[in-house]
Amino acid sequence: MSLRMLENLLAGFEELRHERIGKRVRALVDGALVVDSVRAVLVYEPRRVVPSYAVPVSDVRAELVPALRVNGHADGYAMGDEAFRGRRVLDPSIPFDVHTAEGDPVSLRWPLGMREAAGYIPADADLADHVILDFDAFDVWLEEDERVFSHARDPFHAMDILPSSRAVRVELDGVTLAASDRAKLLFEGAVLPTRAYLPREDVLVPLIPTDKRTQCAYKGEASYFTVELDSGTYENLAWSYEQPLRGAADVKGLVAFFNEHVDLILDGEALPRAITPWS
Question: 132 and which of 32, 54, 92, 164 could share a cystine (Cβ 3.0–4.6 Å)?
């Protein structure tokens, strides 16, 4: 019997995993260089879907001091995909201090600053003398000379943006929000839903800008829009990347709707609403 690739990739999902990347990785706080390493490793704690940077302790320009173990709520959300079989997934919204691998939390202290519990020393022989680092504890991260946003980039993360002449329709509560035959379809990994990015001229309802901003490691900073219908107000239902990162340049200025909350119809066939952190 043929093995589905996603099943194979998830075989070690509940184990500690790592991968060496060969890039120079740096982290700064208040303009000061705290981490500088060409020996960085990506570490995926059990049930984590995105990795964290780990570097040799000697590549950290700070003293590592024991920190209070917090280990907050680690339930995550249950993926409905058959390959996950309801397993609880820890997405990037789950804080760093939720650890699912054995180890010890540490704080980073240097002459002009300190970051509480910003590191984690894993109790694993393959990661001996390494410290896993909290992405959010630092102001700026760089891979070589390019800034990294949101979280460490996963070399196994695939993102494909394709122009499509398929008929795309976005509906909510019986109202057509957008209709287009010139969408850019964004395919991102095996477990995230297909996103349809549409020209603004093909959006049929007013888009009300909001103050919400989020960052994606692969696409950049997103700005959001609220949609008002007779049935109600739907806050932050759509988004756009006005200045995307180079890998997502093809969706610049286009609009996507959360197809966790709307009906996305391709060539007359409604796609199922996905279960994701944004459901």
Answer: 54
